[in-house]
Write a structure and sequence with these properties.
The complex is a heterodimer of chains A (about 240) and B (about 300).
Chain A (H helix, E strand, L loop, with lengths): L3 H12 L2 H6 L1 H15 L4 H36 L2 H5 L5 H30 L3 H28 L3 H19 L8 H13 L10 H24 L9
Chain B lengths: L7 E10 L2 E11 L2 E6 L6 H8 L7 E6 L2 E2 L10 E4 L11 H11 L5 H11 L15 H13 L5 E4 L8 H16 L3 E6 L2 H7 L2 E6 L2 E7 H9 L3 E7 L2 H9 L4 E6 L5 E5 L2 H15 L3 E7 L3 H10 L1
Parallel strand pairs in B: 3-8, 3-9, 6-7, 7-8
Antiparallel strand pairs in B: 1-2, 1-4, 4-5, 9-10, 11-13, 11-14, 12-13
Helix pairs in contact in B: 2-3, 2-4, 3-4, 8-9
The chains are: A mainly alpha (about 240), B alpha/beta (about 300).
Amino acid sequence: MINPTIMRITLRGLFGRRRFLLLLPLPALVAGLALLAELLGSTPPDWVPAVVVGLGFAVVLPVMALIVGASALGSEIEDGTIVHILAKPLPRRAIILSKLVVAVAVTALASGAGMVAAGLLAGSGRLALGLFAGTAVGAVAYSALFLALSAVSRRPVLAGLLYVLIWEGMLSNLMPGVRLVSIQHYAVSVAQSVAGTDLFNGTVSVPVTLVMTALITVAATVLAVDRLRSFALAGETS
Amino acid sequence: MSGGASVVELSGVSRWYGNVVAVNDVSMTLGPGVTGLLGPNGAGKSTLLHMISGFLPPSRGTVTLDGTPTWRHPAIYRRLGLVPEREAVHGFLSGYDFVLASARLHKLADPAGAARRAVALVGMEEAQHRRIGTYSKGMRQRIRVAAALVHDPAVLVLDEPFNGMDPRQRLHMMQVLQRLGDAGRTVLFSSHILEEVAQLSGTVQVIVAGRLAASGDYRTIRRLMTHRPHVFTIHSSDDRRLAVALLAKEPVLGVELDPAGGLTVRTSDYGTFTRALPAVALAEGVRVTRVLPTDESLESVFSYLVGS
């Protein structure tokens, strides 16, 4: 079901792209700000909500997932290299699942590193674990969503940014009901639940979070597989 | 190794985009050997190849490989190799790694051995460990052919494979394709250059404006092309006198005086006419100031074929 060759090519392609490498310092920003706050004498209740939730979950995680997801599939579709993979007798779901595994792992590890560091700086191993769990759950749903956007849209980064900025950033704060379909809120809820912390609050219950994460992941993956099955090349190019 | 002969069958295939018809009611059967798909740019060759290789659904009709529709059936790639026109490759891989990845994606029993054989087949051993990003256009093309051949497919589809190759590389690639054709593989390649098709393939399918304009042995088609009328525009010191004298010459089929000056001559034989013209002008004491062969574009050649 998962193809190691596709995973290897996807991974090498990812680390060969400048826009991904430029993003790598983002998670370090979370850890850096946490360190700075500690050095300046702030207490965790002062900085954790802003740095971890406001920056980590609201910006770093979705942006990393978006760039990784769009690079893993969208870039190959855009530059035409996907044809070399599609012209093989492989089930399309194997291609999508392999890329999904890579996207989730890279997003979770890169974003999670900054979050774990922030959790440890706040003085709690359990908080660090909770933040990583939240990041991992968010990485799964975001990656599936952005891979699907790459398969559906010619401008996956723009579409993804609209979702992150407008839907999650604005509407979910104005209309509480929207949070039920907000991956950011799922990630925060899981982090809060695993960490058992009162430094920040989850707004969606954990069972709802898990069900919705599974639903979004499965629906987005099925959509991406179906679109890849019907991948068509443009007609005359000359 | 897939081995065996395979047949690609197109039956009443049309493809349109909105109101634009790219391919119009094309039927053909492609069997073992090398077949050239010839046509001017924009004729519908790529659209046809994309449908044959399962990368485009026909709007009407069917495209099958050994009876299996090519669209949405990835299993056909066990028997089909594709070299698309767009030369996008994973530039961060070495040539060998690119071919090896292809072999692995095909789940071949000995991917390394198959990759080595395919690289050798296209003569890329020397540069195989360099990053593809550093390759010339011709080298890229050859490594893409190696990747498409790595599983020894019964059918090989190549879209404008000789683009960017120097004459030596072109000759080598032609020999590779010829050998595959002789070995019973079905090789289909597109080109807008008649000489490429003439050198390589016994069978030619000519596509013009989305339609199958001519089909069959290239010598017949070549003859049609050679014997078509040629048109010249001539300016001289006495157009009328020259026109009368030219009409008396055998290869001249017709002469028309242009009210704005000059004359248009239609001839059945390019060589005889261009040799006769100076003699006629000299004999008549007419000074020829300009001779322009018109209608020499490939498109006009193809249009003539459609007409005949």
